[in-house]
Amino acid sequence: MPGWILQTHDETPRVVRITPGVMKTIGRGAQADFIFDAPLVSRLHCRLTADVSGQLVMEDLGSTNGTSVNGTPTARAVLRAGDVLGVGRVTFTVTED
């Protein structure tokens, strides 16, 4: 089943995979689905929802330092292939699986 891949721009890239119909969170706390212990990442930073229509929706969860899409601070956005998601100092490139 196709979905979405988010890959970090770190020295050792990390990959997050999200399949349709799934909701996952990113943060530095143990309650996050994908944990990134990095500067400026909140305990529960943002939520990613891959809906059944094929869209990937990002929602900031009231993070201290905000979430950005393509360098613009954003509270909620539909992500597309090629977008760059910023979570604290961690950046991800969005691609379709």
- Record the strand order, biggest sheet: 2-1-11-10-7-8
Give the low-confidence spans: none
What's the count of strands?
Answer: 11
As an assembly, this protein is single chain
Based on secondary structure, the structural category is: mainly beta
Give me the secondary-structure topology.
Elements: E1 4-8, E2 15-18, E3 22-27, E4 34-35, E5 46-50, E6 56-60, E7 67-69, E8 72-73, E9 76-79, E10 84-87, E11 90-96
Parallel strand pairs: 3-4
Antiparallel strand pairs: 1-2, 1-11, 3-5, 5-6, 6-9, 7-8, 7-10, 10-11
Description:
With about 100 residues, the chain is mainly β. About 0% of the residues lie in helices and about 50% in strands. The protein has no helices and 11 strands. Strands 2-1-11-10-7-8 form a 6-stranded antiparallel sheet, with no helix packed on it. A 5-stranded mixed sheet has the order 4-3-5-6-9, with no helix packed on it. The protein is globular and about 30 Å long.
